[in-house]
Structure formats: C-alpha cells, structure tokens
Amino acid sequence: MLWLAATRPLRRSIMRPPSFATYSTQRGNPLRILFCGSDEFSCHSLKALHKKHKEDSGLIESIDVLIRPSKPTGRGLKQVTEVPVASVARELDLPLITLPKDTFTSWFMKQYINLIVAVSFGRFVPPRLLNQAEYGGLNVHPSLLPDLRGPAPLHYALLNRYTHTGVSIQTLSPDSFDTGTVLSQTPLPGIPIPPNSTPADLTSLLAPLGASMLVSVLESGLHLPLHQDVSWKPPYPIRHAPKIQTSARQIPWLTPSISTLSTGLPSENHLQEIAHQSHILGPLWSKLVVRTPRQEQNKRVVCDDISFIPNPSSPDLPPAISSQIQSALDKCKEDPWAEEQILILEWLQIGELNEQPPEYYPPQPEPSDLYNQFSAVAKGDPITDAITNTISSTPTEGEKKKQKEWRLSLQTAYFPDPESGAIYLRDPIRGGKGLLRIGKMTVNGKPPKPAANVAAQLGRTVTDYRGMHFDEEPIGKALKPSPKTEEEGPRDEEMTLKRTRVMMRKIHVY
C-alpha cells in the first residue's frame, strides 16, 4: 500500500508536469495556456507563444489549442476546409481540441489551464471558463481599441480609409466582445497603412506585431491583477467593425456604400466607393433582370475585377471606349431628348425589411411627385404611379408576415471592350464623370466569363437615350421636362410622361 501511494504522484506527473513557482510574483506562476484561434492572424500568435515556451518553459509551461469545427463551404457546401491554426498546432506537436458543436455549452476546460488566449476565434468565451482560469483571458485585437470593436477591424480600417492602425492586447471581458481592459497598445498615431492595402496585406503587417506584443505582455506580467487600462480616447465617435455579412457584398447601386454607412460621411463618387468596396471585400454580387416577351428572370451575378476610371479622358480607358463615351456625351449635350439605341443592363438591388429603404437615393427631384410616390411605396401607402406605370397597395397583415425584403431595379448603360472583355458603366442616378469597370462576371454559380460576353447575353438595347444621364448632372435635373417654347406649342402629355420616365423602372415590394 505504501508503494502504491508513492506511485500516485508519479502517475500524475506523466499527465502534466508539476509546476514550480520559479518566478517572482511580478510574473506569476508558469502559464498553462488554452489557445483559441482560427485564421492566419492567430497563427502568428500561436507560433510566438510556442517559441517562447521552448525558450522559457518557466514562463509558459504548456499550450493546448482549441479550434472550432470545420464547416462546409463553396457551391453546394461540398468542400470542407480546416482552419489554418489546426495545421500549425500539428506542426508544433501541440494538443489539439475541437469545440464540439461549435459552442462552449456543456464543454469543460482542463483543470490545469490558468490562462485563456483567444485570437480571431469568433466565439464568446463564457465567464465560467474565465473564472476557472487563474489569470482569466487575453485577446490580440488588430485595432486601436476602443475604436473598431468587432470581428472585422482590418476590413473596416480599410473601408473607412484609415491612414493608421495598430494592435491592442486586452483582457477577455465576461460581459461582451472587445470591452476588456487594454493592457498594451501600439503608440499613437499607430502604424501607417500602405496605399492600396487589402485585409491580407494588413494581416501580414499586424499579425507579427500582435504576436510580439502578446509575448511582451506575458514577460512583463501585465496579465496579472490588477490590470491598468492604457487605451487611447478617440476624438471622434467610436466606430464599430461588425461581421461582414453577405448583404455587405451586394453592389450598392441605390444605397450608400458600406464605408459611407460606417463613417456617416458622404462619398465624393459613388462608383469609386463601389470599386473601393470590391478592393477590400473581393468580388461583389448583384442581380440582373432579364426580360423577354414572355417572362422576366432575375439572375444572380458575381462581378469581379472591378475598378474605377476617374473620367473618359483617363489613360486607363481604352481609346475605343473613350471615343464611344465622348460621342454619347456630345449627343446628349446637343439634344438631351434624343432617342438613340443604347446597350443597357437592368440591375435589381435587394434590401432586408429591417433596413430602411433608400430615402435620398435618388435625390429628391423637382417636381417632387416621383420622390413622394417612392416614399409612399417604402411606407406601404397606396399609390398609383403614372410615371413608372406601377400600382402598389397597402399590404394586409397576412401579406406583411410573408414580406422578406424590398427590391428596387434600375438600368445602366454599358460600353463593352471587345479586346479585354470588360464593360464600363456610368452612374445612372448621381451623375458624375467616373466610370465603373467590370472585368468578369459569374452567373448563377457557373464558371466566370468576360463581362462583355455576359452583358451581350443578358443585356438589351433601348432607345430612351436621355434616360441614361450621360450629362454630369444627377437625376433631379434629368427629371425636369424641357422648357417649352411658343414655337413648339403645347407638349403632348404622353411624350412628357415618356421623357420624365426614370431608370428606376419598377418598384417591387414583397
């Protein structure tokens, strides 16, 4: 029996080596870390902790890695991709744990863990686990907190056109995301953001810095109570960085762009904002309305290789396209009521019912009949729209329960480039000199094709030339009927309605 009792501590030491407080109270007990991570940003922190563990096991005694379960992705959800931090954990020969059912509910942490480190994990660590760990939890956040709290700070720093950013090491709050005590932070004004950066570029810039700052916090004992907040106080209202939803990747033809919404500042050029949004978020999607004599179809189109051309005389614009656009501008100036054949695409923008339908896109014209009718449709009031030839009535309670979204359609003229296969669009609502270039399109998940080929298949030709608004004025001016002269006499009412027709041809409310 005495021999058996003597062997029990030995068996325990095989499972986990005993801890010895070899450091002063400034550094605390050796750390037994539960690392929660997922993406490339978190991989840098894991590698830095492992390197420090190998160099100084008295500071970091052990590291266990917790990951979320892999989820099916891609078309048909047939592809399952494991998070990058899992392969790093295997390379470093670290214990790897998968969070069952992607939730901490009914999941129990090993008793020996005394610090939780969460980096780009995407799940809220509950208070019961933070209370169990002797030193609570830490987080590496790629922003100058409290600015850009949320899961997508890299994206929003770029969408908001920040010139500087940084990294913050904070404690894990038991109440909410990104509200812990900031223990360390990049000195102001922060790290300069290189021009034309993408989220991947910012990850490469900030991930090594965040990993180094995390190790420094542990070395200096800043993770020990009592914590001191060293965060800065932004002179402007704090901006947030919520998750990038699928709706954020929709082309905002009629609504403000995601960066305009997050900052509350007006954009100088709407097409430039769309191109900027594509540069940060990748390919954007929209829907094309395909009309035939017998039916109307809405096809989902993913637009890629998007860029902004400042004006028709830009050297980035092919000479053939520049000549076409200049010819259109000249004709429009000569006779804005001329009816010429022109190629168009009809787009459909979709919005959730909990989102406010556009109220100032397009700007309020004079007279205000169209604006008032548009607002009435958004509010559900009954109207008869003589201009757009659309009738809407107040939905019943049963119909309201079925409503899922609002839809608005508009037309854009396009100019195809046969050499590159790209198309060039002008802003049909707000006017302006700029052009939007779209290089490739993917229709309903099929392989990508040159945008000119897709436009030739799904676009059509119209003769309402004035409606394309090739002049540099917004739609408000285009809606005004041309002044009548004594020589012309009274205008035909049908022709007046035709000339005041706008490109937002149909308003759908479901």
TrEMBL record:
GO molecular function, one term: methionyl-tRNA formyltransferase activity
Region (Disordered): 472-493
InterPro entries noted in UniProt: Formyl_transf_N, Formyl_transf_N_sf, Met-tRNA-FMT_N
The entry's keywords: Transferase
Limits of the Formyl transferase N-terminal domain: 32-218
Keyword Coiled coil: no
EC number(s) recorded for this UniProt protein: 2.1.2.9
Gene3D superfamilies linked to this entry: 3.40.50.12230
Keyword NAD: no
Protein name: methionyl-tRNA formyltransferase
GO CC entries: mitochondrion
Compositional bias per record (Basic and acidic residues), positions renumbered to this chain: 483-493
UniProt organism field: Apiosordaria backusii
